[in-house]
Records
---
Amino acid sequence: MKRSLGAKRLVYPLPVLMVGSYGEDGRPDVCNVGWGCVSVSEPPCVQIALRPIRQTLANIRHTGAFTVGIPSACHEVQADYFGCVSAKQEPDKIGKAGMHAVPSECVNAPIIEEFKLTLECKVVCMHEYGSHVQITGEIVNVLADEDVVGEDGIVNIEKLDPIVVDPSADTYHRIGERIGKIFHDGLALK
Amino acid sequence: MKRSLGAKRLVYPLPVLMVGSYGEDGRPDVCNVGWGCVSVSEPPCVQIALRPIRQTLANIRHTGAFTVGIPSACHEVQADYFGCVSAKQEPDKIGKAGMHAVPSECVNAPIIEEFKLTLECKVVCMHEYGSHVQITGEIVNVLADEDVVGEDGIVNIEKLDPIVVDPSADTYHRIGERIGKIFHDGLALK
């Protein structure tokens, strides 16, 4: 039997994206964004959605750039903190979380050094619908900690240990065991 | 030390969305979409991105509606198959995968009965950038199997057992252990 749950945002999984930007005064900021995904393959783009009130949106409109840090399970408290507190309330959010920002060499946005993987993005378009502004950024480079990348250039997911969100229970989770291979396992049904 | 990996689509995690639609002839179709996320809170919307060549895009342009099924780990082979084969090659994809389509009661799109959670969506806007068309659908209802929902209306993630993708190794994974609570754990740093 099926049950109707109403109009809910139950997409599994939701990501935990750490969006880095510079304020007009040049101060680095980072916020926690759950509405985001790849939106274009060529050129490679990531889309994030922000409420108009968010400081990060004002920052991105000003600089035309942002970064997307992928937090690891060991950063769960900091990642949640970056969603609980605005730079308007706490200008030194990053320092308060014990983290460090350095300038990206590719775009006008900060890299949070502690995140093991960061996408460096320049804004290519924005749209607005309902409560959110959808911002598309072209990924011009990905910066990774040496120790999460193999010699083959493939990221080791166990070493990255990224976080996902359960949108119904509002909980953070690790990514678990590997169960199969893309564009491979389904061929058995062909 | 950090290493530049170039312009890659390394968003962690990627979802595995089973997008259901009707062809012009009324035949139900389903395809595997990895580029998708929540894009608006009010009204609740999901965005998916499709290449113009995909049959699902032609279908959605025709009907103005689609569903998003969330596959469970037990559906990994079928989910991958729905990404390997087009309805142009195999008109009875759904039957061939041992699955069954019934009409949504809310939108003009099919529900795949075997998926334990399905979002029922009507198209509200479309944009195109680069290789993909970004389609925003308002989620008008979510349909869930009774046995994955508690009395409190919260979905049980262990029973749903959804799949995520590792975009670097191109592998499917389960969602793993719970590590924290949203808008809660970060308050410790305040």
Note: Chain A has one domain: 14-189.
---
Amino acid sequence: MSATWGEKFKITLFGESHAEAIGAVLDGVPAGFRLDTDAIAAEIARRAPGGDLSTPRKEADQVRLLCGVKDGVAEGTPIAAVIFNTNVKSSDYSQLERLMRPGHSDYGYHVKYGGHNDVRGGGASSGRLTAPLVFAGAVAKQLLAEQGIAVGAHILSVADVEDERFGTQIDPAVFARLSAMRLPLLDESKTDAVRAAIEGARKDGDSVGGVIQCAVTGVSAGVGSPFFESVESRIASLAFSVPAVKAVEFGDGYGLTKLRGSQANDPMRYDGGVVKTTTNRNGGVIGGVTNGMPIVFDVAIKPTASIFKPQDTVDVVAKEDAVLTLKGRHDPCIVTRAVPVIEAIAAIAVFDLLGR
Amino acid sequence: MSATWGEKFKITLFGESHAEAIGAVLDGVPAGFRLDTDAIAAEIARRAPGGDLSTPRKEADQVRLLCGVKDGVAEGTPIAAVIFNTNVKSSDYSQLERLMRPGHSDYGYHVKYGGHNDVRGGGASSGRLTAPLVFAGAVAKQLLAEQGIAVGAHILSVADVEDERFGTQIDPAVFARLSAMRLPLLDESKTDAVRAAIEGARKDGDSVGGVIQCAVTGVSAGVGSPFFESVESRIASLAFSVPAVKAVEFGDGYGLTKLRGSQANDPMRYDGGVVKTTTNRNGGVIGGVTNGMPIVFDVAIKPTASIFKPQDTVDVVAKEDAVLTLKGRHDPCIVTRAVPVIEAIAAIAVFDLLGR
Amino acid sequence: MSATWGEKFKITLFGESHAEAIGAVLDGVPAGFRLDTDAIAAEIARRAPGGDLSTPRKEADQVRLLCGVKDGVAEGTPIAAVIFNTNVKSSDYSQLERLMRPGHSDYGYHVKYGGHNDVRGGGASSGRLTAPLVFAGAVAKQLLAEQGIAVGAHILSVADVEDERFGTQIDPAVFARLSAMRLPLLDESKTDAVRAAIEGARKDGDSVGGVIQCAVTGVSAGVGSPFFESVESRIASLAFSVPAVKAVEFGDGYGLTKLRGSQANDPMRYDGGVVKTTTNRNGGVIGGVTNGMPIVFDVAIKPTASIFKPQDTVDVVAKEDAVLTLKGRHDPCIVTRAVPVIEAIAAIAVFDLLGR
Amino acid sequence: MSATWGEKFKITLFGESHAEAIGAVLDGVPAGFRLDTDAIAAEIARRAPGGDLSTPRKEADQVRLLCGVKDGVAEGTPIAAVIFNTNVKSSDYSQLERLMRPGHSDYGYHVKYGGHNDVRGGGASSGRLTAPLVFAGAVAKQLLAEQGIAVGAHILSVADVEDERFGTQIDPAVFARLSAMRLPLLDESKTDAVRAAIEGARKDGDSVGGVIQCAVTGVSAGVGSPFFESVESRIASLAFSVPAVKAVEFGDGYGLTKLRGSQANDPMRYDGGVVKTTTNRNGGVIGGVTNGMPIVFDVAIKPTASIFKPQDTVDVVAKEDAVLTLKGRHDPCIVTRAVPVIEAIAAIAVFDLLGR
């Protein structure tokens, strides 16, 4: 029941897709830190819909800072950031109080909230709530940059199309390049194939999912804790907060289970006086604590639940089986828009852990 | 830096492998609840080493309840459970203050704790600390059983040997059968192959990993929350606390990314007046909240980091490269022993969420 | 550094006196609960300035609910409540970046925030931030009323003028009467004396403080916990969050230290089948847990720090001693306006503890 | 229901007076910190009974560190400290399952725990649980000393006998002198009067209470936060966790309500380049944050609830009124033994706030 996450860098999330506003309260931005509002707006824009691969709905998504910032500088007190919902079309959602959308949270929420939840636009589990997360992540990225830490991500796969994986060494310069791409891929030759997979699903009134791989470079060894505050626990608890994320793995993850220990253990060497590993199969974290290598993880994003094909479902008012055919505007693939969200949660999780 | 997890059912973990004791404080066991100490001992025994597939070291692992329980009945106050370390052989660990074991937390902890951490037996990230987790899980299981909720797990794979997956419907009776097996497999015909994979690694002085699939049946729809207290976030934050866990997926997880939405969305039907889904690809949780289907997740366990082959590493005292050859007693595969641990964290996470 | 308080009923507070807005996010209002917005407005109005005893500044203080409520009914998701600051006069505050106001938080905040805090109107410690607390308290009161629990308070003293104390039995009907009074006194004959004390201070450009006594009736025995979640700990942690509160006592508090145990121990009797005490010197809480009697506590409110007499202080820019003479609009006594605030924190604290 | 307190310095408390043990898990002691075990033992001894003014019961109260410390040096991992209960006489407590002791937590706990709580020796609200608090406080004091921060306390009153108050400037050397006194008084000429008050109560089978004043010197300005993490909130939440504490005030507390603002506002001056106040009526904290002056607070300790006079009470088994006459061993005044406990909670609260 908690909308609040974090210890040193605490975020409280609120809003529904069709309420007056969504937003977040951010506690823990150091006094005197100058926010780069252009960079924040750019991150928000990366998540916003509107491209040719995405829903045609136009959202303004302007972040309004109600307090905690004066003349662009953080005061050290909580920052309340609000995005007013300016473009809501509630008429699309009339049947949703009866018919539960398969793959959506509708039925679970209907039971949890006794039917009082707002079903319009996904309500409390709406992807729109990731916009305030991206805001918080943009602030965290700026705070991390001061310490030489960078965060970036790319599309590792969409449907069956696969990108390369990050290598053992990661030059953070690649992150800037990726963040400027509409389809951030390490292997740009896959762009058309990804596009084709998404367009194919759209034409069929269907959807596709994918995998996003994220890396955090510049984190020194010794961050995190054994057990409950492991780096993995903290990142995963945020990653699984993002709607549609169904899996998280660090380093080679499931791939490690096919290796022997002699292959999975990353060998260590001194490199210019610094301890490094010659492979990074463990994703920069062992025993919950960083080892100085890039933190690398990826998340599985399931196909968008909203599709236009008829689906078997239930009518919770009539208490009978039914068939649902959705109308409206929906992304056939949210993987691209989720990239900045995954970067954001990585930034939030890592900044919150630093100095603890 | 927090050794405490949970809201309604709070566990505080302490101890190192070679300290005087390990243990946990458990806060939130309802007053008047009669603990089944035999069942607790049985769970602890499942995790204990000693079988032919495991380390030859004998550990007594007797749980001593210091307070919070009177005549076998919980008083409602915190229960402190302690396991004294009776069989520690510190002489094996002399070189470990210099040579960092690849695949282990040694280097990260060396930096984090400034060299003051106890390196013997894995120290603060020792697998031994999962024994108090199993204790807490055993209590949680008993509390869940009162509400008709059951927890079980099986080995989904070891190295390349794969078991069947849980089906859409899960009869909790299968959990009792699995928990009595030394190699809990749904497809028992794979027993010899699993055994061969482990023995093969042992003979080579190497190790193997695997995947554990866990299910929780009987949880009604509406448990969990959107965003930060999603069922996935809570289970994953505990699962990633367990040493060697490198990935967590719910339902079909990564498999969902290869499907289209029309395949990934579980269709809903009334079944005897109850809403069910005809597939359970989402693992019983959507938008962070249960939908009444079994909660199903699996975790990747990397190969045991302690192997007997020479490994490239660093000497942090001499600050130079080195080769480490470990001696002593180590499991070539901890997947089997981790099965009750994963059940435990599932039980803890679900019980903590109920009624919130 | 936490702006968030509570477990089951969680409030996140934000804003400064001269920022764009102040507000709170309220997490834990049960889905389906119909908010009485008139009652909320009435509570906010009780705290608002504007009476003849208070600052002449007019504040609108309209609470705008951004999300979490639909058609007046709580959805079960976080409620974000915002009060826009419509009547700020920043020109009054120009000298305050140099001269620290004695009795104010100015100097501590100047150091804490490195001079980046907003000094206008009290900034982050402004009494204005109690308005969102009153909002949250108004919601808590409504939730408590459903369970037969009532909250009320009166002015126990202003300067040397003393009101009666609540008796052992408290009829909640008196709370309604008190809440309608501008100077809520049990002994109304003291009204003129209180008024004279306040007006006397105003004429002298000075201020007075006082004591507020608060009671919560209808709480059954067994609420609270030993030690860290004692009822006293929870109420006190909130009470001391309110600016100008310098002391909190339960029941007879300091008076108990002048009694012997035989006088301080409240005798117990069955009264219509219910256990009651014949005195309530312990204020309804013993060992951290309620005993079924009214919870009674009082708080000391220091004299308003803003006065118009010249005061010795420091100039933190010139780093030299200085004399400060404040201008502007200030209450000579905030005790009356603090009454609904103290009721609010009592309601929040008690509701948060119920059912835990 | 939480037995855990703190953020950076987290304490989890467990045990009952007549369980096998009491203790605490301490999380947040920096790796490499050498614990002064003699100083810890000395603090524990200050709290222990045995003097001529106290209960004749002998308690060994030896703290055993189960983990987190190696060769006297903190490893950075949780420290579990256990005190085994070696001298329990349960036979004294047979009637207490029926007859609720007035002034004790018995009735509230009986309801809360459904009669499953351990009534022997005060059970979960036993003063014995303050021993682990003193342990944690002793560690905190050592950590604070490294930063030039000292904590001390004295008896401000017992019954009607009053000591002097701490002055505006406090030389921490006085703390050492006080901590060596059985009756720590600033005005030693009051020793006999205090002794007479306690002995008089003992002869009457009755008890007396008193007030303890505590000071923390050396804390720089800027520690604490506005609102929920105010220094006062944090200290008070711990102080009210201590059994028998019924009131807490900072600085002049209730006395401030009798002053005008021009008297209550502490004037500020530069003193050797440092900002100081010429009085310290606000107890070193304004708006939740320290101002660099000593933090000064006092707490009211009610008379010991266990007295030997017959008392009206209820029999919760027979559900009828009854008269209780206690036997056994009880302190006629716990104020002296509570002095190190109040110092402990001050040290814990302040250390937890530093650097946040």
Note: Chain A has a mean pLDDT of 93.
